[in-house]
Write a structure and sequence with these properties.
single chain, alpha/beta, Rossmann fold, 2 domains, five-stranded parallel sheet, four-stranded parallel sheet, 14% strand
Length: 306
């Protein structure tokens, strides 16, 4: 039976750990210039409804490095834009492709594609979740710490799609997560409720960034206005006053803290230039790890978990 990744809840802890191990192995092979081509003759469609730099290029490069062919599909150029049912498009693409990577606005649109497809469907971002981002982020934490046991993660900023997937990850893997969000921009209640009822992580939500940062092993932030929220920029700047990740917050954290940002970054807003370019920042390693995690995901879903 095919394996989709619509949210992290689709994956067991064992499968997540497999992806970590395989991504590290693939990264090592890449550094040693060793090339296996397990997906030779295979193709993946990248159906994107939103702009992208890192996610698109890393998935395309991942497929090429595995020997396969990526095919970019702009949703506005498909018959979906002319009201073809999502299910019809999904069933047809299943006859052409070996997997489908979807970056879109609506979680339901992506889940409808997955429900009617005979091939694995991978969530490369919706307005609600960003699971592949968190898998590559956790790979970066593993590289820095050796394991996740006892890790204290601090999220500073908007309770957005990336934050939601961090909540899912904490519930599944059991690490400590504190989210500091303005009262007006909290994570979705139903996502927190599911994590607390069905998961095993220690997940807290506070309104004070300093409280979240104190003793943290990871400080993570994201833009204050995500794609589609540009008209709210001025209002959000007011709401997020005091939520900038600066040296003051970093100094409150554990001495071995790492600072993460999924990019693009707005220096001087959610993070200072000093911290982004500082010695505790791992944002460039974090960005690279999308490539290796995406290779592990594509290989596993197309070949291993079928």
């Amino acid at each position: 039976m095919k394996q989709d990744i619509t949210t992290l809840w689709d994956l067991s802890e064992e499968r997540i750990q497999y992806l970590f191990a395989r991504a590290l192995e693939l990264k090592k092979q890449h550094r040693e210039n060793r090339r296996d081509l397990p997906l030779a003759g295979r193709s993946v469609g990248l159906m994107f409804d939103k702009p992208s730099t890192r996610t698109r290029v890393s998935f395309e490069a991942a497929m090429i490095q595995l020997g396969g062919v990526p095919m970019f599909i702009s949703v506005k150029d498909t018959q979906i834009a002319r009201n073809e049912p999502v299910e019809d498009t999904s069933r047809v693409l299943s006859r052409y492709l070996d997997a489908l990577v979807v970056r879109t606005f609506s979680q339901k649109f992506m889940e409808d594609l997955a429900a009617s497809a005979d091939i694995p469907v991978i969530n490369a971002l919706t307005d609600l979740y960003h699971p592949c981002q968190i898998l590559s982020d956790l790979l970066t934490v593993l590289e820095a710490r050796g394991d996740l046991s006892g890790a204290r993660i601090a999220w500073i900023g908007d309770g957005n799609n990336v934050a939601h997937s961090w909540i899912n990850a904490a519930a599944i893997l059991g690490f400590n997560l504190t989210l500091a969000c303005p009262a007006t921009h909290m994570p979705e209640g139903f996502i927190l409720e599911k994590a607390r009822q069905e998961g095993r992580g220690d997940i807290r939500v506070v309104n004070d960034p300093a409280e979240a940062a104190e003793g943290a092993h990871v400080i993570y932030t994201d833009v204050w206005a995500s794609m589609g929220q540009e008209s709210e920029q001025h209002q959000r700047e007011k709401a997020f006053a005091g939520f900038t990740v600066d040296q003051r917050l970093v100094d409150l954290a554990s001495p071995d803290v790492i600072v993460m940002h999924c990019l693009p970054a707005h220096r001087g807003e959610e993070i200072t230039h000093e911290v982004l370019e500082g010695e505790r920042s791992v944002v460039w390693d974090q960005a690279e790890n999308k490539l290796h995690m995406h290779k592990a995901i594509l290989e596993a879903l197309v070949l291993t978990w079928r």
